[in-house]
Amino acid sequence: MQPQRPGFPQFVRLPSEIQDMIFAEAIQRPNIHIVKACRVLIHDNYNANWSLSFSPVPKRQDKSGYRWLADLARVCLRARATVLRATRSHQNKLPFKSLSARIDGNEDLVLVEFATSRSPTLGHLHPLDQLHACRFDEDRVRRQLDMVKKIALKYSWRHPTAIERNCNFRCRNPNPFHVLHNGWRMCPREVFGFLNCLPKLHEVYIILEPQNSRDQQRMLSTYIRNFFTLPPTSPTRLNFAVFHASEGCYIELHPSLCYEWCQDLQNFHPFFLDDHGPVSAMLDVLRTKDFLADTTPGLQPNAQSAFGFRVPPYRMSRAERERLVCKLLVAVPEAEKHGWEGEMGRRVRAFFRA
């Protein structure tokens, strides 16, 4: 049972201007919106293709920003008017059939959560890997996510490794090119295969879910407290990406804040989340190899797969791929959005020169 939030019975007696300011302050931007993705088989004439189907998270479990805005709009007429003014320019819609959810396609982040299964996943996402498997219908995905400029994927220790057959971003085979991915939860080439469906993409985020051990959770809590100890106007905090959900937020994970106080040494020393290194290495491969890889060595202009269809070329130009921004995020529950206090807070601010 969730704790009941305190009421404010005197709110209706406040001047209308103050009420509008309170409702406007409750609208935090930019938002993060969660979209569930599952693989579907498509029978097109004589070819068996596959693609992705998107759906919303069930309302009780969904922490997307659009859910929070809808709940706020139902509070009263003044709240509804404030939400309508704030979202007037939101012309982009999430790819849902049964639900109309408008977002800010330029600033909001769309988190695509792939369904997990014990069965082998269907097909491959990268154009080169489609030469040896059934065709992935990229156009279908592009039409549904055409407005997305900022995309996020989740990296969790609970996910299967990249060489397992039920991994959503699995390596095609354990050849020397992929042997480095054995301990990773994603094959970077397959990640690029998905990102290649989004021609307007500007930024890519990987949401890191650390292991559920006491040490890892302590380090994550330390990082969150370090972040919220910094003043909101500090240059360090202003340069970090932050996206707001209906409960909590997602903040950028950066090594510059991965420090904790050591009582014995009377100083700060760095710490590392277990999966931070592998994810950073995966992103580095994604940036330096897969994003910048040219199709010419592997794909001829009229290359065809073993199934007879022509494999499409990369949708993004090399210049567009070079400009893509890649960052890490971690989730922050609402109850943990606070920093260090007292002497510890002073030490943290002095150490980070905030």
From TrEMBL:
InterPro entries: 2EXR (IPR045518)
A UniProt-annotated Pfam family: 2EXR
Superkingdom to which the source organism belongs: Eukaryota
Residue stretches making up the 2EXR domain: 8-91
Protein's name according to its UniProt entry: 2EXR domain-containing protein
